[in-house]
Recover the amino acids of this structure.
């Protein structure tokens, strides 16, 4: 194992919140490392257009990610690739270990690992992954131009991605297992909402998806619907497996913090989608990151 590198703060995750925390902390003259399991920007890179971030009428997700990264690194913050597997406490220091057996030590840690998509866990979902089953409209929508697509889910993500898919598909059918949407309703001639409906199986031929089997949760009736692709948006789960040993998670795995982004462990903060929060948006993640960056500075200052 290589010698551990030491920083004032290691930020685990380089999405909008993590990059904002890095900017605030590095601007306060702290040594900062952002660690991420993928490219900086997180889910921004899977978002075609963002129309609800202050200062932009509309901006492409990858473009905003690049601008945030440049802002985050302009004061010296560093970025490195790595999946964090564990954080251990060593007095006032925190030891961060990655899946590449690299280690880092820091006076403070900001957890900004976000959340990931839940799966339906029905027959055919895994089998047809990459052959008609997708969790990213921006990534895969272009493969379905002029096709009929099914979107599964009733929240903001399902509706927003369904609207995006209408630019490509001939028709989008949104299957909602409840009798109403959790998201705001959208009027779009290409979108049809079917309520009280669950997907029980994804079916297809030797090449690709051909449709889904359904169950009406109100009448008990089973059915089948033809489609060329299935896009699944049924909620998120927190990416917090690496932090179970710290006793900072709730029963669902979300990190518990106060309004200053502090966890129960001094020097460990959490921001963005990894927290139990009523809204998971770029704007809220950025706000969390700003608070955390300033709080990290105050924490390290108090150690002097």
């Amino acid at each position: 194992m290589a010698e551990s590198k030491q920083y004032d703060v290691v930020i685990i995750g380089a999405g909008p919140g993590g990059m904002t925390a890095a900017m605030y902390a590095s601007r306060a003259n702290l040594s900062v490392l952002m660690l991420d399991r993928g490219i900086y920007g997180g889910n921004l890179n899977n978002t075609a257009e963002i129309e609800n971030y202050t200062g932009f009428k509309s901006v492409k997700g990858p473009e905003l990610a690049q601008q945030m990264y440049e802002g985050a690194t302009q004061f010296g913050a560093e970025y490195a690739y790595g999946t964090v597997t564990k954080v251990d406490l060593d007095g006032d220091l925190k030891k961060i270990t990655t899946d590449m057996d690299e280690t880092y030590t820091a006076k403070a840690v900001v957890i900004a690992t976000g959340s990931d998509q839940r799966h339906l866990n029905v027959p055919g979902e895994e089998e047809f992954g990459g052959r008609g089953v997708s969790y990213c409209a921006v990534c895969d929508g272009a493969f379905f131009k002029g096709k009929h697509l099914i979107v599964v889910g009733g929240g903001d993500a399902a509706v927003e991605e369904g609207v995006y898919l209408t630019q490509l598909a001939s028709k989008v059918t949104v299957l909602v297992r409840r009798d109403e949407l959790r998201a705001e309703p959208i009027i779009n001639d290409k979108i049809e909402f079917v309520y009280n409906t669950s997907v029980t199986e994804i079916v297809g031929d030797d090449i690709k998806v051909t449709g889904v089997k359904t169950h009406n949760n109100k009448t008990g009736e089973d059915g089948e619907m033809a489609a060329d692709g299935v896009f699944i948006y049924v909620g998120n789960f927190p990416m917090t497996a690496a932090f179970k040993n710290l006793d900072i998670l709730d029963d669902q795995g979300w990190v518990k913090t106060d309004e200053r982004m502090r966890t129960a462990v001094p020097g460990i903060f959490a921001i963005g989608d990894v927290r139990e929060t009523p809204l998971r948006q770029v704007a809220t993640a950025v706000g969390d990151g700003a608070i955390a960056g300033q709080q990290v500075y105050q924490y390290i200052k108090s150690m002097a």
